[in-house]
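queue> pop job 88
queue> type: inverse folding (structure -> sequence)
queue> payload:
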């Protein structure tokens, strides 16, 4: 697996990967700040048990990886993941929206999204649609895949791009779950944010 970015989003990705994949033999991490990456890797090895090692470039992390999980803060113009770095059959997760070049996305056999909103904003998929390089009708929704109404992986060498932009409903669901658990456990601090909302 390739992890790009040693930050908070990367922590969540590493923990998710560790909870679902117990057969990873090599997890390569790249961050532009080597010292930060080394400290992050040391902490996450202890937390996740993943065999994480820091490498010298994003290309070194990605080549031959079965799973690519970038969690950086780049703009579309600074996208850096190239098509020829990508192993056939890899799962490419688009956590931070703009890491993959248009060519890298076009190399994929299947594009799975969580919602159509990302085609209307200036992130990679939206810019590709705007440039006439991607038709949203040629993508699959993750809900349909999970429900069996659209195909998931169909071949071992099928390269899949999953773009999880996120939807507000997810935040509401998770927030409500956290709130209910806190109430159940009697923890947390009630906050009064205002006496009367100023916009009323």
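queue> result:
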């Amino acid at each position: 697996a390739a992890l790009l970015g040693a930050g908070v989003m990367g922590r969540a990705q590493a923990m998710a990967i560790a909870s679902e994949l117990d057969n990873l033999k090599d997890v390569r991490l790249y961050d532009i700040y080597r010292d930060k990456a080394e400290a992050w890797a040391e902490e996450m090895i202890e937390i996740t048990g993943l065999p994480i090692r820091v490498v010298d470039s994003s290309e070194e992390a990605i080549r031959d990886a079965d799973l690519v999980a970038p969690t950086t803060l780049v703009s579309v113009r600074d996208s850096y993941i190239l098509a020829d770095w990508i192993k056939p059959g890899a799962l490419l997760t688009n956590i931070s929206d703009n890491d993959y070049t248009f060519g890298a996305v076009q190399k994929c056999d299947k594009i799975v999204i969580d919602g159509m909103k990302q085609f209307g904003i200036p992130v990679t998929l939206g810019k590709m649609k705007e440039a006439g390089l991607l038709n949203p009708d040629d993508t699959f929704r993750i809900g349909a895949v999970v429900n069996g109404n659209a195909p998931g992986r169909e071949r071992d060498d099928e390269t899949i791009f999953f773009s999880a932009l996120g939807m507000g409903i997810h935040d509401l669901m998770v927030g409500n779950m956290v709130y209910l658990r806190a109430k159940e456990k009697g923890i947390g601090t009630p906050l009064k944010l205002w006496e009367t909302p100023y916009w009323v």
